[in-house]
């Protein structure tokens, strides 16, 4: 509709509303000054380093270990959140129980709670002498200062992404298809795996990708619980900070570039996936 | 009746699923929140009061309030302008503009700080020029402001764009045809239409501006009493093993988060604002 009504060769369709120049100008200038130009410096600095320096700094053993840890724990936390985020969204949409509204609001806590606050709270809970840690420690389970602790912090950070992306899709889904499946003799489990799961799968994938992307870059909630041992529990964002503190700007830039490229790739893949699906659905 | 039963689970299954969901939320979300307040009040209200009235804590609180007071209005003006341009006109490249506005959400907070160090730091592109003119950006308040504005950049716009697109432009066109000026139309027609959505975006923007840690940590330099925001002060106290102090300041931030959540929920229920996936 939009593309049809755009007259050929004209960049903008005429409108009686005033203010396009002002608002578009303010948006583009502010966007360039705050976001685009600063972000471009990362790539400019990387380009100025030369390929071999870039690889040496961006793909050193220490950097590779940090990527493995960051991507691995973010993926593990994302998978946990897919299962429990779906369960929470399901319970919130389909069932009624006392306190449901409060629970629904609580799901957004990780969006509202500053990450450093979450970080010290989780460390207090899972440290060997902590609220839960003291019971796990005698069993030989170490959470704080291990990759498990990092995963727990990332589960906290990522949960709302999955719940909030699945919830509206579940709520919009009519019961007619499920009724049809039931009349045709399908059991509840069969209906769930054959009918419901395929229709919410795109929302689950979107939620996972957003939680994963956020987890890979997460800093505040992780650094307190992670222990920060180079090569073992050092996440990629922390490695950037460490490099900066040693005035190794090139090293920090190279690692940041690798992380930026990966996050942009996830963003593009996700956009492409959603466009493809929309086209296939004919909407 | 049998149809209804066929689209839900048995009572026992329902109760089990609800209990598992609640247990997960209690462990992963509620317990950390309780831990913050529990640890803050460990030495009673006196220890809490001492930590919060400490001069360094006071200056951190002042700095955090000031940073939010500057960065939130700037992003609010930008958010309204961008949403007006995007929702009221048709032009090529619109979806690219929307994607670019969302960009800061997919950048790690640490990288968000790093870009300003590369621009304005001592070894940065503009560093020598700034040093010659005696202007400090990095390890000073301007750097903290820039990093915060970058991080909170999309909040207001991404809330207003869908809302204003849904409202269309018929109201504004009617006002103009009745002789209102452009500004009159904005203040008397558009703004009342979007005020609750705007408030919603500003709330989320403010919560993030006050709570941002990673980006601010990279540019601040952690100078006590000067460039220490509340989240950074929490880190310093925690690393000094002053746990009561750290959790006391953290509990103020947790209170801010709770107030934000309550206000957000009230807006969602009363004004039927959608609650999609947000950062």
From TrEMBL, chain A:
One GO cellular component term: plasma membrane
Keyword list (alphabetical) reads: Membrane, Sulfate transport, Transmembrane, Transmembrane helix, Transport
Every ABC transmembrane type-1 domain range = 67-270
TM stretches of this protein: 20-44, 64-93, 105-127, 139-163, 192-213, 247-270
Q: How does it assemble?
A: The complex is composed of two ATP-binding proteins (CysA), two transmembrane proteins (CysT and CysW) and a solute-binding protein (CysP).
**Free-text function comment from the UniProt entry:** Part of the ABC transporter complex (TC 3.A.1.6.1) involved in sulfate/thiosulfate import. Part of the ABC transporter complex CysAWTP (TC 3.A.1.6.1) involved in sulfate/thiosulfate import. Probably responsible for the translocation of the substrate across the membrane.
UniProt subcellular location:
Cell membrane
| Family to which the UniProt record says this protein belongs | Belongs to the binding-protein-dependent transport system permease family. CysTW subfamily.
GO molecular function annotation: ABC-type sulfate transporter activity
User: Organism source for this protein?
Assistant: Sphingobium jiangsuense
Q: Read off the PANTHER family from this record.
A: SULFATE TRANSPORT SYSTEM PERMEASE PROTEIN (PTHR30406), SULFATE TRANSPORT SYSTEM PERMEASE PROTEIN CYST (PTHR30406:SF8)
Membrane topology of this protein: Multi-pass membrane protein
* Keyword Transmembrane recorded: yes
**Protein origin, superkingdom:** Bacteria
Key word Chaperone present in the record?
Answer: no
Q: What is this protein called?
A: Sulfate transport system permease protein CysT
Pfam families, per the entry: BPD_transp_1
Automatic annotation (TrEMBL), chain B:
Q: Where does the record place it?
A: Cell inner membrane
Q: Which GO molecular function annotation, any one, does this entry have?
A: ABC-type sulfate transporter activity
Q: Gene3D superfamilies attached here? A: MetI-like
Q: Where are the transmembrane segments?
A: 62-84, 96-122, 134-157, 243-263
Q: Which Pfam families match?
A: BPD_transp_1
Which keywords, in A-to-Z order, does the entry hold? Answer: Cell inner membrane, Cell membrane, Membrane, Sulfate transport, Transmembrane, Transmembrane helix, Transport
Domain named ABC transmembrane type-1: residues: 61-268
Name a GO CC annotation attached to this entry.
plasma membrane
Q: How does it sit in the membrane?
A: Multi-pass membrane protein
* Quaternary structure and interacting proteins, as annotated: The complex is composed of two ATP-binding proteins (CysA), two transmembrane proteins (CysT and CysW) and a solute-binding protein (CysP).
- Give the PANTHER family listed for this entry: SULFATE TRANSPORT SYSTEM PERMEASE PROTEIN (PTHR30406), SULFATE TRANSPORT SYSTEM PERMEASE PROTEIN CYSW (PTHR30406:SF1)
Q: By what name is this protein known?
A: Sulfate transport system permease protein CysW
Q: Which organism is it from?
A: Sphingobium jiangsuense
């Amino acid at each position: 509709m939009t593309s049809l009504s755009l007259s050929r060769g004209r960049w903008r369709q005429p409108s009686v509303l005033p203010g396009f120049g002002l608002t578009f100008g303010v948006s583009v200038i502010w966007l360039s000054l705050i976001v685009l130009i600063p972000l471009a410096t990362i790539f400019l600095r990387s380009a100025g380093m030369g390929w071999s320096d870039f690889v040496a700094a961006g793909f050193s053993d220490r950097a590779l270990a940090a990527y493995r840890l960051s991507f691995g724990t973010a993926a593990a936390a994302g998978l946990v959140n897919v299962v429990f985020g779906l369960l929470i969204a399901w319970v919130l949409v389909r069932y009624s129980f006392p306190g449901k509204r409060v629970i629904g609001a609580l799901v957004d806590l990780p969006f509202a709670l500053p990450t450093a606050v979450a970080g010290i709270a989780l460390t207090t809970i899972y440290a060997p002498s902590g609220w839960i840690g003291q019971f796990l420690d005698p069993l030989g389970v170490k959470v704080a200062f291990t990759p498990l602790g990092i995963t727990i912090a990332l589960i906290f950070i990522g949960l709302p992404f999955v719940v909030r992306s699945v919830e509206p899709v579940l709520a919009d889904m009519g019961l007619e298809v499920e009724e049809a499946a039931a009349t045709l003799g399908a059991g509840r489990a069969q209906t769930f795996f054959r009918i419901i799961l395929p229709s919410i799968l795109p929302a689950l994938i979107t939620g996972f990708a957003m939680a994963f992307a956020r987890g890979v870059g997460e800093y505040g909630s992780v650094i307190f619980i992670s222990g920060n041992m180079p090569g073992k529990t050092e996440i990629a964002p922390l490695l950037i900070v460490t490099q900066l503190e040693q005035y190794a700007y090139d090293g920090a830039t190279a690692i940041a570039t690798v992380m930026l490229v990966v996050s942009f790739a996830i963003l593009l893949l996700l956009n492409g996936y959603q466009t493809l699906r929309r086209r296939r659905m004919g909407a | 009746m049998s149809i209804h039963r066929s689209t839900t689970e048995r009572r026992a299954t329902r109760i089990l699923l609800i209990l598992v969901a609640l247990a997960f939320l209690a462990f992963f979300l509620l317990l950390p929140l309780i831990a913050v307040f529990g640890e803050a009040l460990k030495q009673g209200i006196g220890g809490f009061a001492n930590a919060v009235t400490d001069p360094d804590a006071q200056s951190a609180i002042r700095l955090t309030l000031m940073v939010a007071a500057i960065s939130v209005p700037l992003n609010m003006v930008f958010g309204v302008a961008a949403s007006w341009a995007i929702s009221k006109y048709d032009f090529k490249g619109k979806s690219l503009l929307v994607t670019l506005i969302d960009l800061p959400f997919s950048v790690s907070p640490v990288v968000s700080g790093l870009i300003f160090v590369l621009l304005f730091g001592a070894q940065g592109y503009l560093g020598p020029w700034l040093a010659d003119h005696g202007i400090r950006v990095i390890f000073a308040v301007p750097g903290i402001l820039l990093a915060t504005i970058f991080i909170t950049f999309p909040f207001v716009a991404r809330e207003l764009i869908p809302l204003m697109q849904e409202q269309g432009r018929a109201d504004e066109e009617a006002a103009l045809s009745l002789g209102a000026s452009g500004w009159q139309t904005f203040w008397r027609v558009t703004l009342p239409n979007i005020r609750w959505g705007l408030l919603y975006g500003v709330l989320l923007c403010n919560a993030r501006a006050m709570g941002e840690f990673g980006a601010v940590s990279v540019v601040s330099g952690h100078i006590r009493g000067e460039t220490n925001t509340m989240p950074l002060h929490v880190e310093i106290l925690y690393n000094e093993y002053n746990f009561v102090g750290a959790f006391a300041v953290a509990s103020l931030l947790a209170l801010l988060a709770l107030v934000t959540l309550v206000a957000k929920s009230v807006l969602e229920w009363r004004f039927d604002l959608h609650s999609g996936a947000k950062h």
